[in-house]
Amino acid sequence: QVWMDAGTQIFFSYAICLGCLTALGSYNKYHNNCYRDCVALCFLNSGTSFVAGFAIFSILGFMAGEQGVPIAEVAESGPGLAFIAYPRAVVMLPFSPLWACFFFLMVVLLGLDSQFVCVESLVTALVDMYPTIFRKKNRRETLILLVSVLSYLVGLVMLTEGGMYVFQLFDYYAASGMCLLFVAIFETLCIAWVYGAERFYDNIEDMIGYRPWPIIKYCWLFITPAVCMATFLFSLIKYTPLTYNKKYVYPWWGDTLGWLLALSSMVCIPLWIVYKLSTIKGSLRERLRQLTCPLEDLSSRPGTGQPLPSTRAGFLMLTELESHC
């Protein structure tokens, strides 16, 4: 369970499969060194988490020793950790009101910063998918306004008297690592086995001028899909119904609503596959081949602009002719 929680936390910490990094990266120049940015992001994020761990765990250890209880009983993970452990430490500092203002100002700024990126990822995806609709005068701004208002109304429910129960429902199901693991499985399979890991390496070489570390390709092909699949299955097998503060047990309709929230993001992938298959003419094999063939302008030999030879590690084992359909 600890390893599963740690694995899912990596997804949220690095914003993997959330679309945030993809949306921000889409504004870079074509030859921007994305490999260097990824390595820097990993070290900066891990370093920040490591330093923050010293602060939070030392505070929890002090509180546990002061109260004479195990550390696990001091505060639960989630909102209780941020609004119980840290404020308790701030109170013990000199000029505590000043530090308390700084702490809660930091929380507000971090929340706003996260919301900017999340809204931008959703808006950018919709604008890129439907350019004829949203790339017109004030259409993008109107879309941002609608997304912001809808998010505000949903968040407003969590500020009511029973809002913490609703928040826990969203946090446990809709924003769970299980949903991100499901997306990660399809993402790695599509990139490594359908589009082709070798072709993807060629695209990166065309952008940055050299090929990244070779082990990354094998992570895409084998290690990452296997780890994500194992963690996803383990989370399903070890699933336990949601409880609040280890006392309140949610009713059956609450768990049902939670699973519907979780499925609302996971079913998008199979539903979109079915939709695309149903809107293309031809036999099933022809439709699958057409949908899994990359566009010709996506693959180019570095420095020449010539099409790259097709990879034979693809899911459909595309031939040279089929790869340019």
From TrEMBL:
Keywords: Membrane, Metal-binding, Sodium, Transmembrane, Transmembrane helix, Transport
Membrane-topology annotation of the record: Multi-pass membrane protein
Keyword Nucleus in annotation: no
Record localization: Membrane
Main location: membrane
InterPro entries for the chain: Na/ntran_symport, SNS_sf
Gene Ontology molecular function terms on file: gamma-aminobutyric acid:sodium:chloride symporter activity; metal ion binding
Signal peptide: none
Domain of life: Eukaryota
Residues annotated as transmembrane: 6-27, 39-65, 85-112, 143-167, 173-197, 218-237, 257-275
Binding residues annotated for Na(+), in chain numbering: S13, N45, L110, D113, S114
GO cellular component, one term: cell projection
SUPFAM superfamilies per UniProt: SNF-like
PANTHER family for the chain: SODIUM- AND CHLORIDE-DEPENDENT GABA TRANSPORTER 2, SODIUM/CHLORIDE DEPENDENT TRANSPORTER
Protein name: S6A13 protein
Gene designation per UniProt: Slc6a13
